[in-house]
Prior knowledge:
The structure is a single chain. The strands form three sheets. Strands 1, 2, 3, 4, 5, 6, 7, 8 and 9 form a nine-stranded mixed β-sheet that branches. Helix 16 (485-492) links the parallel strand 14 and strand 15 (497-500). The protein starts with a strand and ends in a 6-residue tail after the last helix. The longest helix has 26 residues, at 313-338. It is an alpha/beta fold. It is globular, with a radius of gyration of 30 Å. The chain is built from 26 helices and 22 strands.
Amino acid sequence: xxxxxxxxxxxxxxxxxxxxxxxxxxxxxxxxxxxxxxxxxxxxxxxxxxxxxxxxxxxxxxxxxxxxxxxxxxxxxxxxxxxxxxxxxxxxxxxxxxxxxxxxxxxxxxxxxxxxxxxxxxxxxxxxxxxxxxxxxxxxxxxxxxxxxxxxxxxxxxxxxxxxxxxxxxxxxxxxxxxxxxxxxxxxxxxxxxxxxxxxxxxxxxxxxxxxxxxxxxxxxxxxxxxxxxxxxxxxxxxxxxxxxxxxxxxxxxxxxxxxxxxxxxxxxxxxxxxxxxxxxxxxxxxxxxxxxxxxxxxxxxxxxxxxxxxxxxxxxxxxxxxxxxxxxxxxxxxxxxxxxxxxxxxxxxxxxxxxxxxxxxxxxxxxxxxxxxxxxxxxxxxxxxxxxxxxxxxxxxxxxxxxxxxxxxxxxxxxxxxxxxxxxxxxxxxxxxxxxxxxxxxxxxxxxxxxxxxxxxxxxxxxxxxxxxxxxxxxxxxxxxxxxxxxxxxxxxxxxxxxxxxxxxxxxxxxxxxxxxxxxxxxxxxxxxxxxxxxxxxxxxxxxxxxxxxxxxxxxxxxxxxxxxxxxxxxxxxxxxxxxxxxxxxxxxxxxxxxxxxxxxxxxxxxxxxxxxxxxxxxxxxxxxxxxxxxxxxxxxxxxxxxxxxxxxxxxxxxxxxxxxxxxxxxxxxxxxxxxxxxxxxxxxxxxxxxxxxxxxxxxxxxxxxxxxxxxxxxxxxxxxxxxxx
Length: 727
């Protein structure tokens, strides 16, 4: 018999759902099932559930035709569950590795109706805050079970569905269901505790409760927070119907605590709604106050309770504002004490920087130029990637837009003829950054850049992510040395649009860069050239590189390792050429991070050509017959051409542990895989580079990651961003 049925709710959680499902399915316990309920989610959550169901028979997806809300959706999952116990897990949370055997042992040993497990709040900055478990139970209850009347302090644990595992037959016998509306956990969790004959507590952290930066109900303002009152009314209705005695004072105290929590959160109740919310609190206080009274908290919390009891909104509001003003003053004083008066550096460079900063701030007060678009790529390394493709499409489709590129002084000579530019760091550079209507970049602009009303920031990115990025790097500190994640989020908050090439990228960026931008999942503009390339285009590129039509060209393009500066994968060009044969040609390209380290190997006559300094990597893709790479996003671009790809990953185990990856390249490769250099040579010797297995892998890879790269991605971006057209 299935021990635990996990009911996983999925609504707008595509960036987190994979982590949630993996955290359950990778546990060392097999007798489970996962019922994934897609509550008519407008993103790809439903597709992710279907994908996992194809891979693991324990996953049973349910797709709802219309959105019904969290409570009814959980009921639908409950109705399909067959496990002895049910665990409701939200799709943006995840289990702690290895926790499930401990849960299973406790369930089998004690047979509780409800087993409460511990959790941590997992914040965006990788800080975890503990639950109230230690405060409620200074001495852990151990394996003993109890009824709520014996341990009423249990009510002070967080009243959610996901921190408890509930016996399914118990729910059926008591007719316990989730009610519609927000705060649906209230009218489920408290009645379940009151009805349970056997409650257990597992003093072990089993779940990470994600504190989302955006998109969470707890950070959404509106009048739907008034629905909390109806949920608490149901709790007291069930108490009366079941004739529960002795618990009313403790439940009442929890109700007032919860109301005060909701009201005190400025992200939930708008200022104009606070007075009517308080009025309803007072009405419920009068209505449900136990005849025998209840334990009023001490100190300032008790004062709040007394003001609610008296209905004194003006006093309550005034004290709240005074408290907030005091907190602001204290924070300001602390910052002032920490601030060290800057010493004026009497250098020409410092004076120049100060003057340019003042100039930039002055330009911010001038009107936004409605025709100006500023483009940049790879920290001003030149004209390339998605911004270049969008620039070219905008010149054709929106000629009224004036495009200006930002480049480093040493890269000016690489610009195509006729491209208007400014040099980074100059007065003109600061002017266009301050005045531009559109700012397009495949990385972030510097921190000093301000998001002006009326300006549009377009983040194009520069690859489909294999390695973890953004906030996810906090879990892999070896590869994130020196990163300022708070500063990163301030930069991300400037984005209006995020360009992605596939659903997978959309999901990962949503998790790595949580903010209120609009995703344009349209394909990668830089790949338009690859999708539309002809045999003539390929021939011209090869001729320009000095490559004969009948030569067999291998492009080797490894990525860099942030955690291992200067390290290079073991690769012997001469041995590779021996295997390729007399018509073999090897193109070698270092990562752009190493552009200061590029040293040409020498004449191309020896069969090896260093193409690290070649500006347009798309040309190299067109010229190559095979791509050899490791964890670079180059594989996703090259796959558009439907040519062989070899993953050469000699440090795979170390890389995935130290740097972290989103994609298991060994399980889902775009072609043949080699884990050491002799194995790479064997791939070419044996013909595995392009055999039937490699072709099947490439077809599946292209279907998943390249379906949108049809040659018109840049046009779709321009029509949406510059022309305001909607699909």
